[in-house]
Amino acid sequence: MANETRLETDVAIIGGGGAGIPAAIEVGRAGGKAIVLEQADSCGGTAAISGGGCCIVGTPLQKAQGLDDTPDIAFEDWVKWGQGAADEIWARFYLEHTLHDLYHWAESCGVKWTDMKFQEGNRVMRWHRPDNNGLGLMTALIKTADSLPNVKFMTSTSAGKLLTRNGRVCGVTATNGKKESFEIHSKCVVVATGGFNSNLDMILENRPEFKAFKVMEGSGFGATGSGHKMIRELGGYFTHMDHIWFYVYATPDYRDPKGRRGLVFRLTPGYIWFNQQGKRFHNESLTGGASATPAMLRQNPPHAWAILDTPMTAKMEVADPYYRDGDKVRKDKVQELLDNSPYIKKANTLAELGRKIEVDLPSFTSTIERYNKAFDDGLEREPEFGKSLKLSKKFDTPPYYAIQLFPLARKNFGGVKTDLHCRVLNKYFEPIPGLYAAGEVAGMAGGHINGKAGLEGTMLGPSIFSGRVAGAWAAHEAGFGPGFVGKPNRP
Ligand SMILES: Cc1cc2nc3c(=O)[nH]c(=O)nc-3n(C[C@H](O)[C@H](O)[C@H](O)COP(=O)(O)OP(=O)(O)OC[C@H]3O[C@@H](n4cnc5c(N)ncnc54)[C@H](O)[C@@H]3O)c2cc1C
């Protein structure tokens, strides 16, 4: 124990992201003491770089647009989209609580919901965007947690191992950037360390079929599965771990020294995708993980080229902090990417571009000619895959670009199994005393709330919600507050 500082608290929370911060707010508001351990130099996690979209039902924003949505309708969409693999109890629990315990609760913490976006699989718009996306949302929640006198933050501090005494979790070890070591002793621990999609080894371990192809890491930098390891050592039961949500509109991040990370540029209006045989294979306006991903994975090899002309590149949005300034796109950085990435080719003619990317040239050029003709013919949709041409244009302005796309692991739909109090369960489905998990380490909530596919907004929303639930019950077990009560939205 030499050189280790011993700290005491009621609840230790590992991870200061989408789930950890709401957990801290609950503990603090219940009157308990919390220490939040965050390995990065500031809190926020993947949640802070996320789109911030949350799937919420029955909101004032929906009503203002005349949308009549209920937890029952949303539940049907959710279960159908999850292809029979969603945890229906957790899905119901979440959906009924989104209005009061996510939408209005977040507003009470200073979050402003601004607008909605339609997402595949939903019958109505439910994806609610907060002001300034994930950064705006997390900034408000962190400020709220920070205002509670009994919540302490230890940033640049990585949690190591869970501590146990008499079969009960009673704290965690940690080390900070100055190589100082700590033992944080607590009555309960909440693990909120996020997913593992920034750990390629773990991705391949859970999806070994990808070992033969290039796949990329694509979550926040902290999503390395460290919490999974801690929980596994204590016998936590993991489920649906192969349910990884891959996106396919991503290109390797050539600036990553390890060559593992990818950059997402979703739904660039106008672009079309080609396989290595020089053929289109999908309606590129459908970019979801349940539509575009299986389409690309069926190609041989499973990668593609996104083709753009110069005006289209002006609309490219790269979802990575280096390419953004809050919710604004840094166009200079996007141009830097286009000019420097070895995975992006540029040419003054389409034929020259086809030669550079080594696709079947006659097929490539004739496909683009046919696509262009749809504009000459004044069609609303191009005939091959029925893509709407409303936001698209002809390929007519060089230089032309081809951006190589590979599957990118974005979100973990599987994780450690928990009960409705977020207590971590072992293989006998009994709680491990003192141990709670919330957010992506728990497959967003409960182990596998989404199933095989998510309606979108169904990662961050359940992470925040399960963080609240875990924090409230951990505080209760530590002797503070009634546990999670909430207000379901029922007729
Ligand atoms: C670019 C991007 C956009 C997204 N957009 C959306 C969206 O619009 N809507 C949606 O629903 N979902 C979205 N998601 C997914 C969503 O952001 C995550 O599922 C959610 O943030 C998970 O919350 P979390 O608290 O579990 O993890 P995180 O928010 O990642 O927080 C985990 C924290 O734990 C810390 N940590 C990890 N290990 C340790 C350790 N050993 N010690 C100390 N700290 C540790 C990490 O540094 C991190 O800060 C997006 C994901 C990405 C990558």
Would you write up a description of this structure?
The protein has helices at residues 20-30, 45-49, 60-64, 71-81, 88-108, 133-146, 200-206, 226-233, 292-297, 310-313, 331-340, 350-356, 361-376, 460-477; strands at residues 4-8, 11-14, 34-37, 54-55, 113-117, 127-130, 151-154, 157-165, 168-176, 181-185, 188-191, 216-217, 238-239, 244-247, 250-252, 262-264, 272-274, 304-308, 324-325, 328-329, 344-347, 400-405, 408-412, 415-416, 423-425, 431-437. With 491 residues, it is α/β, with parallel strands linked by helices. It folds into 2 domains: 4-230 and 410-477, FAD/NAD(P)-binding domain, CATH 3.50.50.60; 249-406, Flavocytochrome C3, Chain A, domain 1 (Alpha-Beta Complex). The strands form 8 sheets. It has a 6-stranded mixed beta sheet, with helices on one face. β8 and β9 (168-176) form a beta hairpin. The longest helix is centred in the N-terminal third of the chain and has 21 residues, at 88-108. The N and C termini lie far apart (56 Å). The structure holds flavin-adenine dinucleotide. Residues 14-20, 37-40, 45-47, 49-53, 158-159, 192-194, 219-220, 222-223, 226-227, 319, 410-411, 439-441, 457-461, 463 line the site of flavin-adenine dinucleotide (FAD).
